[in-house]
TrEMBL record:
Catalytic activity from the UniProt record: 3-amino-2-oxopropyl phosphate + 1-deoxy-D-xylulose 5-phosphate = pyridoxine 5'-phosphate + phosphate + 2 H2O + H(+)
Assigned GO CC terms: cytosol
Enzyme class: transferase
Positions that bind 3-amino-2-oxopropyl phosphate: 10, 21, 199, 220-221
Protein name per the record: Pyridoxine 5'-phosphate synthase
Highest classification ranks of the organism: Bacteria, Pseudomonadati, Pseudomonadota, Alphaproteobacteria, Rhodospirillales
Protein keywords: Coiled coil, Cytoplasm, Pyridoxine biosynthesis, Transferase
Residues noted as binding 1-deoxy-D-xylulose 5-phosphate in the record, renumbered to the chain: 12-13, 48, 53, 103
Gene3D superfamilies for the chain: Aldolase class I (3.20.20.70)
Subunit and interaction comment: Homooctamer; tetramer of dimers.
Family: Belongs to the PNP synthase family.
UniProt-annotated site: Transition state stabilizer, residues: 154
Biological processes, Gene Ontology terms: pyridoxine biosynthetic process
Signal sequence residues: none
Length: 255
């Protein structure tokens, strides 16, 4: 039987909409409560250094007012480490950040930043948070994540989703999916829990859910966009159904 696959709902882009007008609505905490009703297992929120969407008060309220565990995405900076130490979220996902980028364009260079990441992982783990590293599906990065003591890796699915959306690029999509399968299998062999996310839609989630070693998906931007048309609860339920359909096609995990 296929193993369980958790859904983390990323509510960043509720805050993007709120901040576009400088109002107090729409409220990411309200979105998080709806996600809970719709069956999500955790809430993901990315506190960017430039606070372009989620702000400090959102993190405080998500911790205090929402029952679901918080997976806080952040860069491994001193400022963010101090914030995480104050709130002690259930999980922290360390991500790369570039001020000019439109979204998180790639994974962390875990190999190149090993020393600073080792220290950040140690601090966060000592404070009681599970630490994952947001990486490209690449064997070197997976192995280094294990060496540094990360509990989990989250594989960046953006390249796969982009290839699926690009007409006539089936070969590239297939190659990206192969990389994700290989990295997920290696992570599990090394004892590192495997998550995935970025850019997933109803059309692309099935193939990722079918990767048997992946146990958590984090999905946001598409869901918040769909919520405009169908409501957030319905959007999340449809995503859950698409995930379940994909998972039902997953072979048994090799390990
Ligand atoms: C880290 C990541 O995958 C992002 O999807 C993020 O959580 C959404 O925020 P940005 O679109 O601002 O990167
Ligand atoms: N880490 C990925 C995430 O939280 C959601 O990414 P997206 O669905 O907003 O692209």
């Amino acid at each position: 039987m296929a193993r369980p696959l958790r859904l983390g709902v990323n509510i960043d882009h509720v805050a993007t909409l709120r901040n576009a007008r400088g109002t107090s609505y729409p409220d990411p905490v309200r979105a998080a409560r709806i996600a809970a009703q719709a069956g999500a297992q955790n809430i993901t929120a990315h506190l960017r250094e430039d606070r372009r969407h989620i702000v400090d008060d959102d993190i405080a309220r998500l911790m205090d007012e929402v029952e679901l565990p918080l997976n806080m995405e952040m860069a491994a900076t001193e400022e963010m480490l101090a914030i995480a130490a104050r709130h002690r979220p259930y999980a922290v996902c360390l991500v790369p950040e570039k001020r000019e980028e439109r979204t998180t364009e790639g994974g962390l260079d875990v190999v190149g930043q090993a020393n600073s990441l080792r220290e950040a992982i140690a601090q966060l783990s000592a404070a009681g948070s599970r630490v994952s590293l947001f990486i490209e599906p690449d064997s070197k990065q997976v192995r280094e994540a294990m060496t540094l003591g990360a509990s989990a890796v989250e594989l960046h699915t953006g390249a796969y989703c982009d290839a699926r959306l690009a007409e006539g690029d089936a070969n590239r999509a297939e190659a990206e999916l192969d990389r994700i399968h290989a990295a997920a299998e290696e992570a599990e062999e090394l004892g590192v829990e495997c998550h995935a996310g970025h850019g997933l839609t109803y059309d692309t989630v099935g193939a990722i859910a079918a990767v048997p070693n992946i146990v958590e998906l984090n999905i946001g931007h598409f869901l918040i966009g769909e919520a405009v048309f169908t409501g957030l609860e319905t959007a999340i339920q449809r995503m859950r159904a698409a995930m379940d359909a994909g998972r039902a096609r997953a072979p048994e995990a090799a390990t």
